[in-house]
Amino acid sequence: MTTNWTIAGIKSLSENGLVTKVTYIFNAEQDNVLDRKVGELSFTGQTSDPGFVPFEQLTEEIVLGWVYNKLGAQKTEIENEVTARVTQRVNEIQNN
Fold first, then answer.
1. What is the DSSP string of 18-66?
2. Which residues of the chain, if any, have pLDDT below 50?
3. Residue 82: burial class (beta carbons within 10 Å; 0-12, 13-18, 19+)
4. Which of these, 9, 33, 43, 70, has the minimum number of CB atoms within 10 Å of its CB?
5. Residues 14, 75, 27, 58, CA torsion sign
6. H or E element in which residue 77 lies
7. Which contiguous run of DSSP H or E holds residue 16?
8. C-alpha separations of 4 from 25, 34, 36, 67, 93 in Å
9. Are 35 and 88 in contact (CB under 8 A)?
10. How far is Cα 49 from Cα 83, in angstroms, rounded to an integer?
11. Can you give the pLDDT at residue 96?
12. 60-71 and 74-94 helices cross at what angle (nearest 10)?
């Protein structure tokens, strides 16, 4: 099974680039069966916060780190839920 997390969108404040919302996608695919979870997280902070990264310097890796941190244990739950649905569909197809 192939899985991946991606960032589908970022909303930020125009005056300072502070990220306020992130839309993420977790994809799982096996034998041409695809499922995904799309979610949105809100973020708060200040440009003076330690570790602040200017918007133009953000990478998907950095933003995914924020997503993983904010999701905590829910990250694993999302992965388990989506991969289980893919596995179930693949098994149904193979058994028909």
1. -EEEEEEEEEEEETTEEEEEEEEEE----TTSTT---GGG--HHHHHHH
2. none
3. buried
4. 9
5. positive
6. helix 74-94
7. none
8. 8, 12, 10, 13, 23
9. no
10. 36
11. 81
12. 100
Write down the pLDDT at residue 3. 98
Evaluate the CA torsion angle 58, 59, 60, 61 in order and state its sign.
negative
pTM above 0.85, yes or no: yes
Residue-level pLDDT at 80: 98
Q: Using alpha carbons, select from 71, 73, 70, 56 the residue that is nearest to residue 10.
A: 56
Which of 93, 91, 78 lies closest to 28 in space, CA to CA?
A: 78
Task: Tell me what pLDDT residue 49 has.
Answer: 93
At 26 the pLDDT is 98
What is the C-alpha separation between 79 and 75, in angstroms, rounded? 6
End-to-end CA distance of the chain: 20
